[in-house]
Design goal:
mainly alpha, 2 strands, two-stranded antiparallel sheet, 15 helices, transmembrane, transmembrane helix, ABC_transptr_permease_BtuC, cell membrane, membrane, globular
Amino acid sequence: MSDQRMRDQRVSDQRVSDQRMPGDRRAVSDRRVLSGRVVRNPTGSFSARVDVRAATSVVVLLVLALAISLYSLASGDFDVPLPDVVRTLLGEQIPGAQFIIMDLRLPRTLTALFVGAALGVSGSIFQNLTRNPLGSPDFIGLTIGASSGALIVILVMHGSTDQIALGALIGCVVTSVAIYLLAYRKGSQSFRLILVGIGIGAMLDAFNSFLITRARLDEAVGAQVWLIGTLNGRSWEQLRPLLLTVLIVLPIAFWQGRHLNMLALGDETATALGVPVERTRGILFVCAVALAGVATAAAGPIAFVALAAPQLALRVTRSAGAGLAGAAAMGALLLVASDWVAQRALPSGPVPVGIATGLLGGAYLCWLLVHEWRKGR
């Protein structure tokens, strides 16, 4: 080979190398599993990975949720100026605004925020444990089990509002235990949890229909409104159990949720990395059931929030793995925005919030199925 041909070959190889570099870097970036910076204390005994983009996205979602909450508190049949809303929340006594804000609107808005956050975290945990974007409490039968417990109290025992909430919580817990025990065989497997959950959910759905068809007309109408999911008439007495449970369970879920990314690598890999697989999975399962149960007890089986919030949060934060904080913020934003739409934006007047989430969630589910179909899944 002549010297000229060798120089031309080197130039050609260099051009090819230069053309491949961006693609190669992008490929490496696509294969990246975890992102962010690791923060350690001076002694090195504690460390945490902080994803700046994900943290910023969570803050933005929370700010949007709070902004919609303030607007919802200020608007209604009796509009209250926004400065008066803020002064009332800060403790200043303003005649008229005090009763409207603190007694009528604030319990409903806080219920929407905390129910949305609880459903978002519960859905994120179940989707990560089952490794399936459809593995939410709605699809594996937990909210249907909660509905069965509530319907028994409403139509059979004729109980009070507190007893209905307790019945929903018990129904959710009993259903989750049944699903876990039936799906357990030398460990809990994700596909068995989904299949068993779908089967039990179908049976409980038939049982709920049987109860409604055997009830009187007025009782059946009241039960059907509860089954849609509503925030109407929520008070401080109904908010306190929800608030207490969420404040206790969420920190535990966040602490154990740091193992979700390693559980996604498989049981053997997670065990090799030092994760107690069955114990971690059991604690997260209990946390997810508690959050779904208390949220359903507070507002009824509100559809699609637990399904859509985790996936939307992942797309907004572009996080590499499970982002429970993002799911909580997205769930709170979705539900408080849906509640405002259900109260103010529809021309037919106020409707239960479950109708608004059903409309939004149905559109999201269609988009998700088309997206997965195009990817060949």
